[in-house]
Write a structure and sequence with these properties.
This protein is mostly beta strands. The chain folds into two domains: 396 residues, monomeric porin ompg (Porin); 307 residues, monomeric porin ompg (Porin), CATH 2.40.160. Helix content is 5%, strand content 52%. The protein contains six helices and 37 strands. The strands form four sheets. Strands 1-2-3-5-6-7-8-9-10-14-15-16-17-18-19-20 form a 16-stranded antiparallel barrel. A hairpin with a 4-residue loop joins strand 16 and strand 17. 42% of the residues are buried.
């Protein structure tokens, strides 16, 4: 769910959680003149090893017709770390204990697993009683024959004595944190804006997906500019539908936390949000603008956080604990709450929430200083008794050469929900409980600095840092929750803004690549989409922005060498002499790469290529193997992959022939610590990077005659370190590609490519704990020799407003494989890329 609440206007769209309705912002009735795109990245971190997140955003806007704009937005948040699970008085820190024989929670500062198991656990008369009840209960159990044990005979008194020892002393409050494995939230939004003479109609819809929370939403917004051209009215409505579940072991897969439990069913809940907004904008003077806004949101359905716990004393009495011990009852007989431990329960929130907000924004421009002052105030209240005040001021200072500097300060204060407390010393009559610090009384102070630079080629770069501190003592008027939940956070962010309609289409540069001096732009020469380092720019000062998407899939049978391997063989030989119990049945990889290239001279190109990777693997039990739960059904890893830095240098260039050398260096920015929910390290192939610095040289030749084109490339990967931080390294790799292409029309061509890849096996082995029950856990089951056939189409815009844009697609069909060890069959790979030269 939410990783951050509100960081900065520039990244507000990035940090919106699946729980919140997308914003309904007013839009002036002015069609966009040019197509544009934005790419943003943020890195968010909280103090004391709490939550951290990497936030990615991309959006594009295309004018479809004179009065119509089309928009698309994509967001991905990848988050992990630790977050508070429950709180108790510090004197009780070691008192609540888990039940022996269950995996409810560990009595420590950090809980390992984001989804503590909750269900009916029986408190028996054996040693499976409360773990540390040395006195009272254990004395009675151990000294009284089971047949003579009764509630009245002393067992309830023993529970009373033990629970009485847990009475808090009103001291400091202690939080227990939960270790949150890496997860990702993905969101896509489509929008359409239609411009009438004085009215703009905006319609949008989208979906947000994370392992335990899925949302679909839509909104409509009307902006009406009144006849005096000084006043604009805005009206909006939004609808969001949410599906809430308990994640399958929170990122690791496997059974739901309640699967197979007759008393506590799988969580399958939903909620609906209706949101309305009204806005008024008024130009007061030629340099002053005032905006007034009001909003109302009605939420109904499941509004509880399914992972938060609360300590409630007395919800289950000593007599009831004693009866449970003697198996005379189950928890559902004595409480309506979900039991998570001794006097620990799942939180419960009301199923209705009405949220209101009013805000005002004042904008004033100072001509003498070429700067503007922004003053914002927002008041919020709801029927949970939370009200908040937000005050923000920012200063936009224009400097020379297209540079804008924006410092800002923001203050936030809120009261607590009526059902919030750090812990509860008696049951509430309404049955609502929460110890989630986000519903407490606190204040927060934020400050930040943004720097933006506009360039004369239709693009701008922005970067900034934002720092936030949250404390109970910062609450307006006092009365905050104290310092036990205090923390601070910061966000580093950067963005790239592009005007996608070329301003330099008359330059003579080929939209296709590296033959601009010799080949007309209408005769594109484009290497296939999946070829790395396949093209150069050969005009000093040229820029290229590109995006590449890759989808690869493994599925079906297991192979050893060139032949299929049955389950019996995999069991006996796939895991050395340990005996495999599981194997992968499907694996998918999605890679998103941003490609930025600059030509400082006509013979040298410099490039940087950051990547975002998502991997999914599904497991199956091997037929004939013993049962083993060490591998769950689903493995996932998301986040930043390794970052590629490269220099391409021209060796030979003549009409119809070109040769260039590529020298690449892969920086180990991808994680090699992706884990399962129980802290087991995932398989080598599920990690997001190599963990080593890698040298990637390449040599590429391309040729062209009339409508025909052809080329060849040899590329290698040499690991520059003996081992990574997990004490292994991937094998070296080399690849040979040859291809031929034919130009079908001035803007369309097709290609056929043959690829041979030799990939070495992994050297060394991790010393971190993993299950060693499936072939993916062993380094010898990686690498091999692979043959593929690629079929591609290339589209290029030779002239006009969108000159410089190119779109390429290629499908790689596996022809032959000779695997090292035991590996899953390859199904194929899809490459799709877009590039823009300017």
């Amino acid at each position: 769910m939410a990783v951050t609440d509100r960081i900065n206007n520039a990244l507000a769209v990035l940090t919106s959680a699946a729980l919140s309705l997308p914003g309904l912002s007013a839009k002036a009735a002015l069609p966009a003149s040019n197509a544009s795109a934005n790419f943003l990245f943020g890195d968010y971190r909280e103090s004391d090893d709490r939550m951290k997140a990497q936030v990615f955003h991309a959006d594009v806007l295309f004018p479809m017709r004179e009065r119509v704009d089309f928009t698309f937005k994509a967001n991905e948040d990848v988050y992990s770390g630790a977050t508070p699970l429950f709180s108790v008085p510090n004197a009780m820190r070691d008192k609540p204990k888990r039940i022996l024989g269950t995996n409810i929670y560990e009595p420590a500062d950090v809980v390992v697993s984001a989804s503590p198991v909750v269900g009916t656990f029986e408190v028996t008369t054996s040693m499976h009683g409360f773990k540390s009840f040395e006195d009272g209960v254990f004395d009675y159990i151990l000294n009284t024959p089971p047949a003579l044990q009764t509630v009245e005979g002393g067992l309830a008194a023993g529970y009373t004595e033990v629970i009485d020892e847990m009475v808090p002393d009103e001291g400091d409050i202690s939080q227990t944190f939960v270790d949150h494995p890496q997860e990702a939230r993905k969101e896509g939004v489509l929008g359409l804006n239609y411009y009438f003479d004085d009215v703009t109609l905006a319609v949008s819809g989208g979906v947000s997906d994370e392992p335990d929370y899925k949302s679909s939403f839509g909104s409509t917004n009307v902006s009406w500019e009144l006849g005096d051209d000084l006043t604009t009215l805005n009206f909006g409505y939004g609808l969001t539908s949410n599906e809430i579940s308990r994640v399958e072991s929170h990122g690791s897969g496997g059974d739901h936390v309640h699967a197979g439990d007759e008393d506590y069913q799988d969580l399958d809940e939903d909620s609906t949000y209706h949101s309305f907004n009204f806005g008024l904008s008024r130009v007061l003077t030629k340099n002053t603008l005032l905006q007034l806004n009001a909003s109302y949101t009605h939420q109904r359905g499941y509004l509880t956080n399914p992972y938060k716990l609360v300590y409630v004393r007395g919800e289950i009495t000593p007599d009831e604990y004693a009866a449970l011990n003697l198996q005379q009852a189950i928890f559902q007989d004595v409480t309506d709450l979900e039991v998570a431990g001794v006097e620990l329960f799942r939180e419960v929130r009301p199923d209705r929430r009405n949220r209101y907000a009013v805000s005002t924004q004042l904008r004033h421009y100072f001509p003498a200083l070429d700067s503007s002052l922004h003053l914002d105030y927002r008041y919020y209240w709801d029927n949970w008794n939370i009200d908040s005040h937000t005050l923000e001021t920012s200063w936009y200072q224009e400097l020379s050469r297209g540079v804008t500097v924006t410092p800002y300060v923001r203050y936030y204060s809120q009261s607590e929900a009526y059902f919030y407390a750090p812990y509860f010393l008696a049951p509430r009559s309404d049955g609502y409980y929460s110890s989630d610090y986000r519903l407490s009384a606190f204040g927060a102070l934020s400050t930040g600095l943004n720097l933006r630079k506009e360039f004369d080629r239709g693009f701008a770069l922005q970067a900034g840092i934002d720092y936030r501190t949250q404390k109970g003592s910062l609450k307006l008027g006092g009365g905050g929750i104290g310092d036990y939940a205090d923390f601070h956070s910061y966000l580093l962010h950067a963005s790239l803004e592009l005007d996608l309609e070329s301003r330099f289409s008359s330059s003579g540069y080929s939209a296709a690549g590296h033959h601009g001096h010799h080949v007309k732009a209408s005769h594109p020469v484009q290497p296939p989409a999946g070829l790395m380092f396949g093209q150069m720019m050969n005009r000093a000062g040229d820029l290229m922005v590109g995006y590449q998407y890759m989808y690869g899939r493994l599925d079906g049978d297991m192979y050893r060498g060139t032949r299929k391997a049955n389950d019996r063989e995999v069991i006996d030989q796939g895991c050395r002499n340990l005996g495999c119990t599981n194997t992968s049945r499907q694996m998918e990889m999605h890679m998103n790469m941003l490609h930025l290239m600059y030509a400082p001279t006509d013979w040298l190109n410099l490039a940087v290529m950051p990547t975002l990777i998502n991997k999914k693997m599904r497991m199956r039990s091997l037929e004939g193997a013993p049962d083993n739960d060490s591998h769950s059904n689903r493995h996932d890893s998301d986040g930043i992959g390794d970052t590629l830095l490269a220099a391409l240098t021209q060796l030979y260039d003549s009409p119809g022939h070109h040769l260039h050398l590529g020298l690449g260096l892969s920086a180990p920015t991808g994680s090699i610590n992706s884990k399962l929910y129980d802290s087991e390290l995932q398989g080598y192939g599920m990690q997001l990077g190599s963990g080593t610095w890698d040298f990637i040289p390449s040599l590429t030749y391309t040729g062209q005659a009339s409508r025909w084109s052809w080329g060849a490339q040899i590329r290698g990967t040499k690991r520059l370190e003996d081992e990574n931080g997990q004490h292994y390294r991937f094998g070296d790799e080399w690849q040979v590609s040859t291809w031929g292409g034919f130009r079908i029309s001035p803007w369309l061509s097709a290609s056929v490519r043959g690829i041979f890849t030799d990939r070495g096996e992994i050297h060394g082995e991790t010393d971190r704990h993993n299950s060693q029950s499936t072939p993916v856990d062993f380094p010898e089951n990686y690498g091999g020799q692979f043959w593929d056939l690629g079929l591609g189409v290339n589209l290029a815009v030779p002239d006009g407003a969108f000159s410089g844009h190119g779109l390429k697609l290629e499908w790689l069909e596996p022809i032959r494989q000779d695997n090292n060890g035991y590996q899953l069959d390859r199904e194929g790979t899809l490459y799709a890329s877009w590039s823009y030269h300017f």
